Amino acid sequence: GIPPARRHRHDPVRGHGPPNPRGRPHVRPPPQRRRRSRPPRASLDHAPGHLPL
């Protein structure tokens, strides 16, 4: 059914695109460093129903 060369392109088991061109070992690219999102500003306790201006 499937020509063997094509089969590896998106193989869910091996994943990550085509088999490595050239003989370099297949290394996963380093994980993206997630920017530490600043925690939500600690809201001072406001009177109920009061929107801070």
UniProtKB/TrEMBL annotation:
Compositionally skewed regions (Basic residues) per UniProt: 1-11, 23-39
Biased composition (Basic and acidic residues): 43-53
Residue ranges of the region described as Disordered: 1-53
Protein name, entry field: Uncharacterized protein
